[in-house]
Amino acid sequence: MDKHKIITISRQSGSGGREIGQKLAKQLHIPFYDKKLIGLAAKKSGIAKDFFENAENNGAGSVLYTIAPGAFFDLPLSDKVYLAQCTAIREFAQQGSCVIFGCCANEILKNSPNVLNVFIYADIKSRKKRTIEEYHTPAEKIEEHILAIDKKQAAYFNYYSNMKFGRTESYHLCIDSGYVGINGAIELIKTAYFTNVDV
What we know:
- By secondary structure, this protein is of the alpha/beta class.
- The chain has a single domain, classed as Rossmann fold (3-Layer(aba) Sandwich), CATH 3.40.50.
- It is built from 8 helices and 5 strands; from the N terminus they run βαβαααβαβααβα.
- The protein has a 5-stranded parallel beta sheet, with helices on both faces.
């Protein structure tokens, strides 16, 4: 493959998107960015790292994100965080092939060549089971917890994007991890990754 390609992964809560992204990156021998991206953005912007770690779950600000990168004057904190993430994501994309998890990466890189945008989802039963087992979340009100996270992530994505969270037209590939499993999802993404370089 002559050109490098970026894989962005968006997901429903409890669908296994993070694990899929991490294992995929390892198998492809390319970097995986989530907390690494957050750390870089935090370091360069001077904003506390905690704000980046919870950005998608904290809602959005009230200013258009077309403001030039670095123009942080009098912006809501959530918009400052988003702009810092934009800068970091574009820098990682320029460096070479990688997997970028969350952070509206598919929106931020929408005008970049060779980007494969993936959305991972699953049925609520699979998501509840995974959340309880992996994160040791109490079974009581687990569905309410999952759906609340989905709602916040969708609101964040829809605010900063011209696309819609979870809509098929917002991605190149949508995968039901509850049906194909983690490894099955990885294989599907790898097939797309090697099949079409010029996305």
